Q: What sequence folds into this?
């Protein structure tokens, strides 16, 4: 069984190490974070500090959205969008990576402390009891300070997160 993480779709395109894991991985992404990819790839705003890196990341975003728009993948995603909290059938990215899209519902459970996508990430992590992977230090701090029942890893600790089973729920 692959190691599972809740993650924003943009993170998969921003960090190359996420596409070369040392073991099988399943990234579970909220559908709204896929929609965010379309905004990010078409914005004139600079996402990365280096212009070459910025163009590369936006190209990666376009490749991912194009792949997800392929008929079979689109059908899997559209099926999940029919009912709240439904997960798509797994979409393989390569031999060791699959993406699963979830139709999460932002219930405003965390009010003004978290934005809608952050809220969805938290709710998915709580609901599925799967660790959250992010690069947003402030987001991690707010999770810790709020005492939220979510296991969270910084993307810089991705290799450790792959190996970590100490806090994983037991059947």
A:
């Amino acid at each position: 069984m692959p190691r599972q993480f809740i993650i924003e779709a943009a993170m998969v395109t921003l960090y190359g190490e996420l596409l070369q894991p040392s073991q099988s991985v399943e990234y579970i992404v909220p559908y709204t974070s896929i929609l965010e990819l379309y905004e990010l790839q078409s914005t004139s705003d600079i996402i990365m500090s280096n212009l070459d890196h910025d163009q590369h990341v936006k190209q990666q975003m376009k490749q991912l959205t194009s792949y997800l728009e392929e008929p079979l993948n689109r059908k899997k995603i559209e099926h999940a969008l029919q009912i709240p909290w439904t997960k798509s059938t797994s979409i393989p990215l390569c031999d060791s990576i699959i993406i699963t899209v979830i139709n999460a519902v932002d219930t405003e459970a965390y009010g003004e402390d978290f934005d809608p996508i952050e809220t969805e990430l938290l709710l998915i992590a709580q609901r599925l009891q799967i660790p959250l992977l992010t690069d947003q230090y402030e987001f991690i701090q707010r999770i810790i300070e709020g005492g939220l029942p979510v296991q969270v890893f910084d993307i810089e600790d991705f290799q450790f997160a792959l190996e970590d089973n100490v806090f994983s729920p037991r059947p």
Observations:
- The first strand starts at residue 3 and ends at 6.
- Helices lie at 9-14, 31-42, 51-69, 71-80, 116-128, 137-145, 158-163.
- The chain has a mean pLDDT of 90.
- The chain has one domain: 3-163.
